[in-house]
Specification:
190 residues, alpha+beta, seven-stranded antiparallel β-sheet, two-stranded antiparallel sheet, 4 helices, 22% helix
């Protein structure tokens, strides 16, 4: 009888140990690293970039430190790819003109990519100081932009700015919805 008591006690302790160790596991989205004998939690970086961050990086952009003439002088086109509910995007593309010609500059978490581009002759320069930011546009028009999302098909939002008009293309499955806004006031046009 006494021997059975020890076996039952050991099995019971193992079950308690297994259950309690499962309760203290860390979420899989965070990483844990050990440094100097202590543990530090590292959270993963968001793939989304604010327009202000991308625009500031564009102002600081120098493709070749020896050739100042290829630094962007004017912006004629702006595109946000996969824009979230706050107006941040996974990448921002700027159509720019410099003394060497025109090109598209794409900015994401990995940095800048240059894409050759022939700017349309009728493109107007975008004065960023006179437009509302995508973050403000989404904040002002949240009810219109985020209305009736499909629970089965996630939405993808792409934002274009050209000639003073924001064009927001919302794709959900095979359905597209296009909204246009005045870039200066943020008011819905269609």
């Amino acid at each position: 009888m006494r021997r059975n008591f020890h076996v039952i006690f050991v099995i019971l302790m193992l079950i308690i140990l297994i259950i309690s160790s499962a309760c203290v596991s860390q979420p899989s989205s965070d990483k844990i690293t050990q440094q100097n004998g202590g543990l530090y939690q590292i959270s993963e970086e968001s793939p989304y970039i604010s327009f202000d961050t991308a625009h500031q990086n564009l102002k600081d952009y120098r493709p070749d430190s020896t050739n100042e003439s290829t630094a962007p002088k004017s912006i004629f086109y702006i595109h946000g790819t996969n824009v979230d509910e706050s107006g941040n995007a996974t990448s921002w593309i700027f159509g720019v003109r410099h003394s060497g010609g025109t090109e598209l500059l794409a900015f994401d978490r990995s940095g800048w990519k240059q894409i050759p581009w022939s700017s349309p002759a009728l493109s107007e320069e975008i004065d960023v100081s006179t437009i509302i930011t995508p973050e403000r546009l989404f904040s002002m028009n949240k009810a219109i932009i985020l209305s009736n999302p499909s629970p089965t098909n996630p939405e993808r939002r792409d934002l274009d700015l050209i000639r003073g008009i924001y064009t927001l293309t919302i794709t959900s499955g095979s359905r597209n919805r296009i909204l246009t806004f005045n870039a200066t006031t943020g008011e819905l046009i269609t």
